[in-house]
Amino acid sequence: MKVCLLSNTPDPIKVIYLACRTCYSKLAPSEMQEVTDEKMVSLIKNTILSGHHSVLEHASFSFSVEGVSRALTHQLVRHRLASYAQQSQRYVEYKEDTLDFVMPKTIAKNYKDKFDALMKEIFKTYRELVEDGVPAEDARYLLPNASTTNIIVTMNFRELMQFSKIRLCYRAQWEILEMVKKMKDEVTTVSQFLANGLQPKCQHLGYCDETKPCGCYKFSTSALEVKSERNKLWDM
Amino acid sequence: MKVCLLSNTPDPIKVIYLACRTCYSKLAPSEMQEVTDEKMVSLIKNTILSGHHSVLEHASFSFSVEGVSRALTHQLVRHRLASYAQQSQRYVEYKEDTLDFVMPKTIAKNYKDKFDALMKEIFKTYRELVEDGVPAEDARYLLPNASTTNIIVTMNFRELMQFSKIRLCYRAQWEILEMVKKMKDEVTTVSQFLANGLQPKCQHLGYCDETKPCGCYKFSTSALEVKSERNKLWDM
Amino acid sequence: MKVCLLSNTPDPIKVIYLACRTCYSKLAPSEMQEVTDEKMVSLIKNTILSGHHSVLEHASFSFSVEGVSRALTHQLVRHRLASYAQQSQRYVEYKEDTLDFVMPKTIAKNYKDKFDALMKEIFKTYRELVEDGVPAEDARYLLPNASTTNIIVTMNFRELMQFSKIRLCYRAQWEILEMVKKMKDEVTTVSQFLANGLQPKCQHLGYCDETKPCGCYKFSTSALEVKSERNKLWDM
Amino acid sequence: MKVCLLSNTPDPIKVIYLACRTCYSKLAPSEMQEVTDEKMVSLIKNTILSGHHSVLEHASFSFSVEGVSRALTHQLVRHRLASYAQQSQRYVEYKEDTLDFVMPKTIAKNYKDKFDALMKEIFKTYRELVEDGVPAEDARYLLPNASTTNIIVTMNFRELMQFSKIRLCYRAQWEILEMVKKMKDEVTTVSQFLANGLQPKCQHLGYCDETKPCGCYKFSTSALEVKSERNKLWDM
Question: Alpha helices of chain A — where are they, by DSSP H?
Answer without folding.
Answer: 12-24, 37-49, 70-76, 105-131, 136-139, 157-167, 174-190, 192-196, 201-205, 221-230
